[in-house]
Amino acid sequence: MKNVFATRNGIIFVGLFIGVLAALLQYWGNPGNMGICVACFERDMSGALGLHRAGVVQYMRPEIIGFVVGSMIAAFAAKDFRPRAGSAPIVRFVLGAFAMIGALVFLGCPWRAILRLAGGDLNALIGLAGLICGIGIGTFFFRQGYDLGRSYKTHTSVGLIMPLIMLGFLALLFLYPQVEGEAKSGVLFYSLKGPGAMHAPLLISLAVGLAVGALAQRSRFCTMGAFRDLILFKQVHLLIGVVALLAAAFAANLVLGQFNAGFEGQPVAHTQAIWNFAGMLLAGLCFALAGGCPGRQLFMAGEGDGDAAIFVFGMIVGAGFAHNFGLASSPKGVGPHGIAAVVIGLAVCLFIGFTMRKKA
């Protein structure tokens, strides 16, 4: 049976679907220009688990749970669940950690960069330029024979580990719901103010996550892949989905009164252009070397890819490091050690890129 979501019209539909729902999630309660942000939401989950104690960004985001579980359901339904693992797991973990650090210096993943632009935040243009440059450096390594090695078919239980963990997180949400005025409920931490305290209703967020996860799994939607394919192969299939997301979110923001053009005063953003660029340069290079943007990594983890799951865990742990060690930015600007972390991250990525090339 033909996979209609993998067609040109299918990828456009998926982009439009994500763009509209992202704007609606913001309207329903998610932070400004953050209807969906994989990096920010994984950071909030890291805080909810107590891996960092930044009180303004702690919430077990149902959207992330839905992405993984929705992808798993779609993969099983289409007989596309393929458990696999074994492709340089420690490298993927490190890339995930530095990808998160870069994203938190910019304050957003590629999805949020697009949604920030759709909401009028012109700082996102600088971040997107950095993202594309980072992916461009990654394509240089691809042409030089960069390879993380092959993954191997493995037990179904290996592919189910990440979805089961996410279902466990969902169970914690229901077992320990937030108590009004309390920063902790059972084992989970909750923000009382800031972005972590802003969220759409749980069941709506979960439903959106499940739907996006299922559609993205079938369409192979990936922002990093869109720019990589354009640079490497001059293919625009994935890119038209990204453009559709931007257009749909822009139109929805106009209708909902959520559009505010400018550089200053944007929600959960700063105006330090150099580090907006450099943060996403690092993130883009990490995504390229790992083979997918953070959303795509979640969708692959849902369809049984244990290596993608390792990258996701790297991002969650990286968020803990970013906030515990003063690496993450805030609306006031880059954290006290964020600049050093970006420089170190770029050096690590270049080391990985140059040393993991196939020899002639």
UniProtKB/TrEMBL annotation:
The chain crosses the membrane at residues 12-29, 59-78, 90-113, 125-146, 158-176, 196-216, 236-261, 273-294, 306-326, 338-356. The keyword Manganese does not apply. The keyword Transmembrane applies. It comes from the Bacteria. Keywords: Membrane, Transmembrane, Transmembrane helix. This is Membrane protein. It comes from Pseudodesulfovibrio portus.
